[in-house]
Amino acid sequence: MIRVLLVHDACLVRSVLAEWLRGEQPLDVDDTPWRGAAARVRSFGPDVCAADLDCADGQGVPPLGDLCPPGTGGRPPALVVLAQANRPGLLKRAAEAGALGFVDKAGSPDRLVRAIRSVARRERFVDDSLGFGFLKAAQMPLTRRELSVLSLAAAGASIAEIAGSLHLSYGTVRNYMASITRKTGARNRVDAIRISRGEGWV
Amino acid sequence: MIRVLLVHDACLVRSVLAEWLRGEQPLDVDDTPWRGAAARVRSFGPDVCAADLDCADGQGVPPLGDLCPPGTGGRPPALVVLAQANRPGLLKRAAEAGALGFVDKAGSPDRLVRAIRSVARRERFVDDSLGFGFLKAAQMPLTRRELSVLSLAAAGASIAEIAGSLHLSYGTVRNYMASITRKTGARNRVDAIRISRGEGWV
User: Fold this and answer.
1) Any alpha helices (H) in chain B, and if so which ranges?
2) Residue B126 domain boundaries
3) B156, A106: Cβ pair inside 8 Å?
4) Same-domain check for residues A172 and A111
5) A6 and A74 belong to one structural domain
6) CATH number for the domain that contains residue A191
7) With contacts defined as CB-CB under 8 Å, which chain B residues touch A106?
8) Are A189 and B193 a contacting pair at CB < 8 A?
9) Average pLDDT over residues A89-102
10) Taking residues B178-194, what's their average pLDDT?
């Protein structure tokens, strides 16, 4: 019996998906929204976490680290994510968080069951249709520092506020923003934020 | 037998939800992503469209008008939407599109079935937990013109481009942006866009 924790923010969809998974032997399924997932990992002790990368607000980055807490003793759960090829930033973060399974939300639900079974055996499972997303993730042109600047800008901070937060000069932050705008192929700063948010980078 | 067209962008979730609804007699369920929904309404001729207001990209506004095409002869389908209280802009658009049913995605799936049955009888169905969202929708402070300016800005247009599109002067668009920033309680233009997108206004 594989113990699966399903992580998805919309209760209505999550309950139906959990019920459907329970019909697929041998799965013992619990479910939770992203908020509260860390506590549920500790109390339920799943073999596998199956998590939707899209958060309730449709933007922002889910707290993937909550699903694989370090140093709890014992093996952390294997991670399967439900993902979209057009959000490479989230694919990259999931890979960095150690996800073993990548299921395309545009695919069939049977793929999710197969992925859960694979990662429970600690075997990798990747939907081919996500390939282009991984390619885009690999080609991500922004540096880590540029991403920090962009994240603050996307959260609504002004150039001066970003400079203050990151201990940089106003001119340096302006230069970073110009470089970000150029590299993302955007028309201006607002457009760069729109593009990067849509792709799941910030 | 009620003919239901389920509209949701993620195929994986949509298939499971459609299968679950088919288990609830007397529902005859077909399903589609937002893209292609207009054609499916014509070919399937549903009594009820049940549509998730959140699009695949997690932002932007779904084409609600596609579900209730005018002048097709016969009665257009009744509309139920799956919604979130924290996206008042989408609630308002659904109300304007003539939706009869409003189901909270944070609630139980049984509510969706009840809503479908209600609106099939052309009776209104509204989840109480969405009340605060409707209140926020009613309190929306931006004018129609300000929303047009904001939509273009959110799509990445510069002040000059917005002025060109709307046949306004540069200074007028700047004044609109300042007024939008003040009314939304934002720190600056980028922050105003972030807030408005999150709430589903643009």
Assistant:
1) 11-22, 37-44, 88-96, 109-120, 131-138, 144-154, 159-166, 170-183, 189-198
2) 2-137
3) no
4) no
5) yes
6) 1.10.10.10
7) 10-12
8) no
9) 92
10) 92
